[in-house]
């Protein structure tokens, strides 16, 4: 049977806080009730998420999650990021709520994805439709070198599993062993991601150290073009550090 619709029902401590957050992401309230049980339905174009309130609920202990597949993941990320900047003055990378950046996911066949961790502690795992990343589909290039492989593993640990400390540990180990033969673009990408992990872990000194190494890495014009996204991420991280 075609045209079925499935709508995730996720927990939260406050439907008002949840609604405020998702309205910043461009959602609108399509249903709301406070009695007999708090409940709010939110919709953004064809995407619907519904939430039920539990006053004693602790977001840090949430197991709530759902997968969302979208045709243009970069456009959606930009829209979400713009809304979060208006609401919070920045894209939150630590605590709850927060949002990760779009990256290829080794544990999802290389498909690009990012996660929104909302005020209820729910992980909204957003992935590009496989058919949207290339037409016709093209196999993603394999990571070349130890640092690139470590970076892939760190993304899985942190962005998919939420184990930011272990991701930071394995990246630190790999970054200590970088040799002259390593692609400087991969080095910059890994350092920018290490800085992002440091922000998530609320370790500004580690973030500054990683960003300093980004500045020290020599890049040709062609390499700078390939590293443009990582350099932009590094600049945004630097601007958001205290002091």
From TrEMBL:
**CDD domains hit by this protein:** BLMA_like (cd08349)
What keywords would UniProt list here? Antibiotic resistance
Which InterPro entries does UniProt cross-reference here? Answer: Bleomycin-R (IPR000335), Glyas_Bleomycin-R_OHBP_Dase (IPR029068)
Its recorded name reads VOC family protein
Q: Which GO terms describe its biological process?
A: response to antibiotic
Superkingdom, taxonomy of origin: Bacteria
């Amino acid at each position: 049977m075609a045209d079925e619709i499935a709508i995730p029902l996720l927990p939260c401590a406050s439907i008002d806080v949840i609604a405020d957050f998702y309205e910043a992401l461009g959602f609108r309230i399509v249903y709301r009730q406070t009695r007999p049980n708090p409940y709010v339905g939110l919709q953004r174009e064809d995407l619907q998420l519904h939430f039920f309130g539990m006053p004693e609920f602790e977001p840090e202990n949430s197991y709530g999650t759902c997968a969302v597949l979208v045709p243009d993941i970069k456009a959606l990320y930009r829209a979400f990021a713009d809304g979060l900047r208006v609401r919070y003055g920045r894209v939150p990378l630590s605590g709850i709520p927060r949002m990760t950046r779009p990256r290829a996911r080794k544990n999802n066949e290389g498909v690009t994805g990012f996660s929104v961790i909302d005020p209820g502690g729910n992980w909204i795992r957003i992935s590009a439709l496989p058919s949207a990343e290339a037409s016709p589909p093209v196999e993603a290039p394999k990571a070349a070198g130890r640092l690139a492989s470590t970076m892939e593993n760190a993304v899985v640990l942190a962005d998919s599993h939420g184990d930011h400390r272990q991701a930071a540990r394995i990246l630190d180990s790999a970054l200590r062993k970088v040799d002259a033969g390593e692609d400087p673009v991969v080095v910059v990408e890994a350092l920018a991601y290490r800085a992002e992990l440091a922000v998530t872990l609320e370790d500004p000194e580690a973030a500054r150290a990683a960003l300093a190494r980004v500045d020290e890495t020599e890049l040709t014009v062609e390499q700078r073009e390939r590293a443009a996204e990582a350099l932009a991420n590094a600049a945004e991280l630097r601007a958001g550090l205290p002091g």
